[in-house]
Write a structure and sequence with these properties.
Chain lengths: 210, 183
């Protein structure tokens, strides 16, 4: 319907209507000046109906002229604007519908993505928990091994240190005993013992063969 | 390095002295020169001082030793001065004696005693060493009180130790070996 209203009459139709309108306007004026319908008009006027057929015909002619003009300059642009507005509204509704559908799709995709992400996160958490558990087990085993190694090392070191101290003690005992012996001998050494030792050396001395 | 150079000088000196049949005289010369250097520190520092010129050193040596040493010994000293090797005289003397002993099949013995030895004891020790080694023996005698008592003889690379100090050291080594072996 809008399209019908919007559709402009052809120029020949418009021209035809204008010519008819002019003709009717002129004919109405002429008929009015000739009092052609006086016999009808006077009884009607007497009955209180002031109808002038010539003027009426002229008015019809004027309307026939006026209508295409109004149609061209007022109704057609108005209808065009209304139709444009309707199209825009339809487009807007269509876009809104499209957007709503798109939003629905996006929502579904988003919900699916959230669901996938949650599943993936759960898997990763489980994997991390398992890895942490494995690591804990490994660390506990390593710590136990290190502890045993450190204990063994400490025991070995204690044993070594004990042996070292015992050896130092033995050496010290030897040194003390020999120091006392040396002192005792030193007090008893004299020229006679020296001569005796020299004599013994002379008797026993043997040059080693090469 | 110094020992190798000294050995070369000593070898050359010994060869020439042998040809001239003056090995013993040269040995005595070197012994008297080294003894003079040992006993007079001023003389030693003068000879070894690189700041002193060669002529002064040669003049002093000729003044002191020319009438008491062989010409060959003085010639050696001139050569050492010329080559700035005068500090090697002690080593050259030692090496020369080594060549001399080797040529005459003589052993060198260093005898160290806790108390001074009598001449008879010295002769007895040398005689015993000669009998034992079947070689002629040249010996030097020193006194070292730390040996406590007895005598010790170095011959070549061997040591014959008849001292109380040596006995105590051996006893100490034995005891330490035993107690550490037990550990």
């Amino acid at each position: 319907m809008a399209n019908d209203i919007e559709k402009k009459p052809s120029s020949s139709t418009t021209a035809f209507k204008i010519i008819i309108g002019i003709t009717l306007m002129l004919a109405g004026g002429y008929l009015n000046s000739q009092h052609t319908f006086k016999s009808i008009e006077e009884p009607l006027a007497a009955q209180g109906i002031p109808l002038t057929f010539g003027n009426t015909i002229s008015v019809i002619g004027v309307f026939l002229i006026l209508f295409p003009v109004l149609n061209s300059f007022f109704f057609a642009p108005l209808m065009t604007a209304i139709n444009e507005r309707n199209r825009e509204l339809e487009n807007t509704f269509s876009e809104a519908e499209s957007l709503r559908k798109e939003m629905g799709d996006m929502k579904s995709a988003y919900e699916k993505r959230i669901s996938d992400t949650e599943a993936e996160a759960r898997e990763k958490i489980q994997a991390q928990l398992k890895e942490a558990q494995d690591l804990r087990t490994q660390l506990m085993a390593d710590a136990a091994t290190a502890k045993e190694h450190m204990i063994a090392q400490a025991q070995e070191e204690i044993s070594r240190e004990k042996d070292k101290i015992m050896n130092e003690l033995r050496v010290e005992v030897v040194n003390l005993a020999l120091g006392a012996t040396e002192k005792l001998i030193g007090e008893n050494v004299n020229n006679e013992t020296n001569k005796r030792l020299v004599q013994e050396f002379i008797e026993k001395a043997e040059v080693p063969s090469k | 390095m110094d020992a190798r150079v000294a050995t070369r000088y000593a070898q050359s000196l010994f060869d020439v002295a042998s040809k001239q049949n003056i090995v013993s005289s040269v040995s005595d010369d070197l012994a008297s020169i080294t003894a003079a250097l040992e006993h007079d520190p001023r003389f030693k520092s003068f000879i070894n001082n690189p700041a002193m010129n060669r002529e002064s050193k040669l003049k002093l040596m000729e003044g002191v030793f020319s009438d008491r040493t062989t010409a060959l010994t003085m010639q050696l000293f001139r050569l050492l001065l010329e080559k700035r090797r005068e500090s090697l005289i002690h080593l050259v003397a030692q090496e020369f004696d080594r060549f001399r002993r080797a040529a005459s099949n003589t052993l060198f013995a260093q005898v160290v005693s806790a108390m001074p030895l009598t001449e008879a004891e010295q002769k007895a020790i040398v005689g015993k060493l000669e009998t034992s080694s079947k070689q002629k023996v040249e010996a030097t005698f020193e006194v070292d009180a730390s040996l406590m008592s007895g005598v010790k003889v170095h011959v070549g690379n061997s040591v014959m130790d008849g001292t109380v100090r040596g006995s105590l050291d051996r006893l100490r080594d034995k005891l330490l070996y035993d107690v550490l072996k037990q550990a």
